[in-house]
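Hallway conversation turned thread

IA: we were arguing at lunch whether anyone had actually written out Long-chain fatty acid--CoA ligase end to end. Turns out nobody had. So, for the record, here is the sequence (519 residues) and right after it the C-alpha cells. Reply here if something looks off.
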Amino acid sequence: MESPPVAAPAGTLEHWAKVKPDAVVLIERERQITWGELNELADRLATALAAHGVSAGDIVAVRTRVRSEWPVIVSAIAKLGASLLGVNFRLTPSEVRFVLEDSGAVALIADDADLAPLAALPGELGLKLAAGIDAPAPGFVPYASLLQTAPRRWQSGGEAPLVVYTSGTTGKPKGVVMHHRRADAGPELLAYLADMSKGYRSYDEDTAVLVSMPLHHGSGPGQIRNGLRAGARIVLQPRFDAEDVLRLVERHRVTHWTGVPTMYKRIAALPAEVLGRYDVSSLRSLGIGAAPVPMPLKQWIIRHFGPILAEGYGSTETGMITALAPDMQLVKAGSSGLPHPHVHVEIRDGDGAALPTGEMGEIWARTPVVIRQYLNRPPLGPDVLDERGYFRTGDMGRLDEDGYLYITDRAKDMIISGGVNIYPAEIESVLLTHPAVQDAAVIGVPDAEFGESVKAFCEIKPGHTASVAELLAHCATDLASYKRPRALDIVEELPRNAMGKLLKRELRQPYWQTQERNV
C-alpha cells in the first residue's frame, strides 16, 4: 500500500505552492511567476544540478543582478541541501577566480552580458557546471536548457545557507557562512530571529516587498527569503532608479522597502512634482542601514513617507546587532538603536577593559549568530573573538543610559560608499604593484551622494615618475569599478609615527573635521 504524501512544512516553497499555486509570488518588470511555477522551475533546476553532480553540502556560486532567476536558483539549491555563494557582479575575473577557489564552489551561474572574461574559469577550476543566463560562452551551458530537465519532486530541508565574502583589515576576502534558520536552532537563536520578524519588520501574506538591494550580501537575499517564507509577493527592481522605486510602490502596492542612504538621497533629490506624482500610502515599513544616516535625510524620509523608518546596525560576521524603531528615530537622534534579544554589546578601551556608560570606545558584540571562523580558515583568535563570544566589530561608539548604541567612528579602515564595504588594504596592495609606487594609503572622504568616496595617496620611489592618471589607470586593471579611487594625490611623504606606523587619521582629519560623524 502506497504511503500518503508527507505534508510540506509551513513556510516552505512546497507549502505555498500547494496552498496557493496560482497566486503571484515574483514580479520583475512585466514578468510574473506564481508559486506553482516557482516550485516547478526550482524542481527542474534542482534535478539538472543534481545530474551535473551537485549534491548536499556543495557550494554553488551565483553572480547575478536583482532578477527573477535568483529566487528559482536559491530554492533549487535549498532542495539539494547545498549552499549559495553570492558573487558580486562587479568583481573582475581575477577577483571571481579567488572567491571560487577559496570557497571550493563546484558550480557557477552567471548573468554577465559578456561571459568571455570568465570563460577559462570552469575548465581551470574543474567546476562541475557553469551556466550563463543571458549570453552563451565556451564552457558555459545555457541556463534555459537546465530548465528543460524532466523534474523529480524535491522537498526543501530548510533554507540554503548563504555564503558571503567580506574583506578584513588584511584586504583578503574571506567567506562567512550565514545559516541562521537551521533545524538545530536553540531558544536564544529562535528568540533572536523572531525579533527580526515582528512588529514593523513583520512579513505576512499581504506583504509586497520591493527588492532593490544587490544579491551578493545579506540584505537583498534576506528580503527575498523572508518574503518566500511568509508567502508574500516579491517585486524585483533589476537596476535601482529613484523614480522607479516610487512607480513600483504605487503600481504593486508595495508595503516594505529597504535601501541604503544613497538610494534615499536620490529619491529626496527628485523634483517636487515627481515626488507628488506617486501614491506611496501602501508602504508600512522602510528600512535603512549599511552606512551612517545623516539626520537631515532621516527627517526628510519621515516627513515624506511618515513615521515608518527603521534603522539597523550589524555586520556580516555578527548578524544584526541593534535596531532603532520608527517611533524612536527622532527621540534618540543619531543612535543605531537597542540590541536585539540575546544580543550583548560592550564598549571597551584599547586594552579590552569594559568602559562605563557614556564613554566612547570600541564596540564588541555577542549575538546568537556570531561566527567562530571564516570559511576554510582556522578559528578566530581572542583578538577578534574573545572567550565569552564577543566579536570585535572594529567600530567605535558609546552606550547611553537607556542602552542605546551610538556609533561615532571606525577603528577599522573600512570605507562605506553607497552602502558597499570597501577595504583600503585591497586597493593599497594593487597600487603597490606599480613599479613607481613606494607606499600607498587609501581613505574614505565625505561624499554628498555616497556618504564616502575612495581617495588614495601615493609616495613615489626616488628616481621614478608616475602621473595621477597613470596610477588611476593601473587601479582600473585589477579592481572592480566601485573600489577604484575617485581621487589620488601624489605626496612626498605619508604621515607616520615614531615607529613608522602610517597615521591614516591625519590623512582623514582635514576632510572630516567639519562633519558631524567620522564615519
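OS: looked through it. The chain has a mean pLDDT of 91.
IA: good, adding that to the notes. The radius of gyration is 24 Å.
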